[in-house]
UniProtKB/TrEMBL annotation:
Name of the protein in question: Threonine synthase
EC number: 4.2.3.1
Tryptophan synthase beta chain-like PALP domain ranges (all copies): 24-318
Residues forming coiled coils: none
Organism: Streptomyces wedmorensis
PANTHER family per UniProt: L-THREONINE DEHYDRATASE CATABOLIC TDCB, THREONINE DEHYDRATASE, MITOCHONDRIAL-RELATED
Record field: catalytic activity: O-phospho-L-homoserine + H2O = L-threonine + phosphate
Gene assigned in the entry: thrC
Length: 351
């Protein structure tokens, strides 16, 4: 009987750990790569979804956090801190519990989904709501980590990128080679940086014959990489990617240019359409930010940018349960029936 052991044990020789490193894990990674039937039909391609909402805390952040908390523990840290739009804080809080550490999280006031706030609370994080946006939170977290005894676990910490690159390894291991195109949502730009590093490493070591083109999508109201300048007051319903000054800016541009890809924007409307399509037609419930990858693929297809016959992977980064408001909003209220089979059958249209 084999259970997936978590990304550090599964990819130990490709990560900066030694035999004595105290591994802190919730057995993250090993997430499903799901063939997307409707998206494949629509694009004429072979489309797969990398379902990162299946990670222990419900997002891809766990891959980076197992590394960040493991290294913090190895270095003797007793407390960690992060800025977050919600998922990083949920992950940091959970892994800090596993490591017996204190976690502090800085979130933009009123702009994180309820499920993510609940996670940080229930895992016992010290939470500060900052009167500012994510970019302000990150500035504050950096300053605190420089001046006080607390380790920064945002993706500006390079071991986070090391952990997150394992998603690319899993995809190549599963498909037998790299896809032609990899599509993902972009916020602080750590994840596009990490996937590109993972694909590069596998290709350099002969484990893939080529590297994919990297296609990144930002929300229109929070698209600094598309505009080529910092967005001072970012806005989007996809709160996870409501970021105006991505920390990994230069790495994202390098991933785009070295891979022959592009970074474009999708509107909130396009994001919500893709969100509903994923749930209603592919059976995959993601949070709105995650749907930006799929919205982007559909936009590119409508623009004639997607040649048929290609193999495409879209990362869907977080679980839909994190932010269920958007699933409920606008949907009809379920009707109430008595305990009566005839009445129920009628309401269901069976009779
Ligand atoms: N999707 C989700 C669900 C996210 O939570 C994030 C980032 C992204 C996409 C974008 O990834 O930042 O590496 O480009 N969330 C961070 C957080 C900012 O604090 O949880 P990125």
């Amino acid at each position: 009987t084999h259970q997936w052991r978590g990304i550090i044990e599964e990819y130990r020789d490709r990560l900066p750990v030694t035999e004595t490193t105290p591994v802190v894990t919730l057995r993250e990674g090993g997430t499903p790569l799901v063939p997307a039937q409707v998206l494949s039909e629509r694009t004429g391609c072979e489309v797969h979804l990398k379902v990162e909402g299946a990670n222990p805390t419900g997002s891809f952040k766990d891959r980076g956090m197992t590394m960040a908390i493991t290294k913090a523990k190895e270095e003797g840290a007793q407390a960690v801190i992060c800025a977050s739009t919600g998922n990083t804080s949920a992950s940091a809080a959970a892994y800090a519990v596993r490591a017996g550490m204190v976690s502090a999280v800085l979130v933009p006031q009123g702009k994180i989904a309820l499920g993510k706030m609940g996670q940080a609370l229930v895992h016992g994080a010290k939470i500060l709501q900052v009167d500012g946006n994510f970019d302000d939170c990150l500035t504050l977290a950096r300053s605190l980590s420089e001046n006080y005894p607390v380790a920064l676990v945002n993706s500006v910490n390079p071991v986070r990128i090391e952990g997150q690159k394992t998603a690319a390894f899993e995809i190549v291991d599963m498909l037998g080679d790299a896809p032609d195109i990899h599509v993902l949502p972009v916020g602080n730009a750590g994840n596009i940086t990490a996937y590109w590093k993972g694909y590069r490493e596998y290709a350099e070591d002969g484990l893939a014959t080529h590297r994919p083109r990297m296609w990144g999508f930002q929300a229109s109201g929070s698209a600094p990489l598309v505009r080529g300048e910092v967005v001072k007051d970012p806005s989007t319903i996809a709160t996870a990617i409501r970021i105006g000054n991505p920390a990994s800016w230069d790495y994202a541009i390098a991933a785009r240019d070295e891979s022959g890809g592009f970074i474009d924007e999708v509107t909130d409307r396009e994001i919500l359409q893709a969100y509903r399509l994923l749930a209603a037609q592919e059976g995959v419930f993601v949070e709105p930010a995650s749907a930006a990858s799929v919205a982007g693929l559909l936009k590119a297809a409508a623009q004639g940018k997607v040649d048929p016959g290609q193999r495409i992977v879209c990362t869907v980064t977080g679980n839909g349960l994190k932010d269920p408001d958007w699933a409920v909003a606008g949907a009809p209220q379920p009707v109430t029936v008595p305990v009566d089979a005839v009445a129920a059958a009628e309401r269901l249209g069976l009779a």
